[in-house]
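Re: the request from the purification team.
They wanted to know what the chain is likely to look like in 3D before they choose a buffer screen. I agreed to run a prediction and write the result into the notebook, where they can find it.
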Amino acid sequence: MNHARDLRIAIVGAGLGGLTCARVLQRHGRRVTVFEREAGPDARPQGGTLDLHADTGQAALCAAGLLERFQALARPEGDQWRVLDPATAEPLAQQGPPAGPDRGLEPDPNPGPGPDADSDSGARPEIDRGQLRGLLLDSLTAGTVHWGRAVSAATPLTDGTCRLHFADGTTEDFDLVVGADGAWSRVRPALSPAVPGYTGVTFLETGFDHCDTRHPDLARLVGHGSMLAKGAGRTLVAQRNSNHHIRAYIALRTPQDWHTAAGVDPGDQQAVRAHLLDLFEGWHVSLRRLLHGGDHPFTSRPLFVLPAPHTWRHVPGLTLLGDAAHLMPPVGLGANLAMLDGADLAHALASAADVDTAVRAYEDLMLPRSTRAATDSAHALDHLVPATAP
């Protein structure tokens, strides 16, 4: 086995978990290469805002030596929620976390409790996902991320190493491959046959730019953080992002092909708008303004999850983190856990005598933790989008 400092470590996926792992490894003097299929850091929008929890996301940033830089970018006031009555748009008496153990939503998008009733408001400050990813990318040694390098598969080898197969037909061998490549991971099939399944909930996302000047009524409705109103099988969420942007989600319990059943072309924004207005008939006019759409078209985001528990038999030279390991509903835990996974794996690799011992220790810690979180997140989604009127 190679000396720990000479290990050939590959991370597949330049998301938050993979980048956290790479950063902590480099802080410990370890070499690492990150392979990302996207052409560059600005190839696509990175989604909405995240609330980072002290014992997970913030702990990972502390391990990465980036907590102070995060605090300079974060918005403590974004940890506020306004929970409104759907018929009157009046604040409900019970403010606070709308989804059980978490404080936010986050589908490569996401949300966070009540400005008047939440005693620890600001304990889980918000940051735009793109800003957080940029912070992690800027912290890495130049050239760590190899952009435009799509991985098609991973093959464990008999000597305990792992071979990566790239979309361009080339291969490379590593002492450890870390699958941090998200919901539809190309690495996961080497460890597990599990595939994500549809939750029965779809988010339709839109956005409002320059909200304080162009959409002042909406800005007041949302407040400094996020706003939530829910009914039977349908929920409205709107959240402040940086640069005076509001991101809105219309959450529906619906078949994945909702547009087919409704006879709606999802590319026809007027038809989507009319369908949503019908679904939310009787809701207060101030809330229905979200359904008219904003400065960005409606984007359909069906929510998928991996089975829980999702486990695998240990395979030398290969492991998973983040959504590749434990895809769960986007209710505030996923990004936090991915970052903690990355930090925990890096610490194990830096301290264990050999890579296999390190990976076993990491998996023994991560897998039970992710099972508990997946169960909590499933309950939180049921609370966020209840099947019956709350």
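For the purification team: The domain at 79-124+198-304 is CATH 3.50.50.60 (FAD/NAD(P)-binding domain).
Please add any questions underneath this entry.
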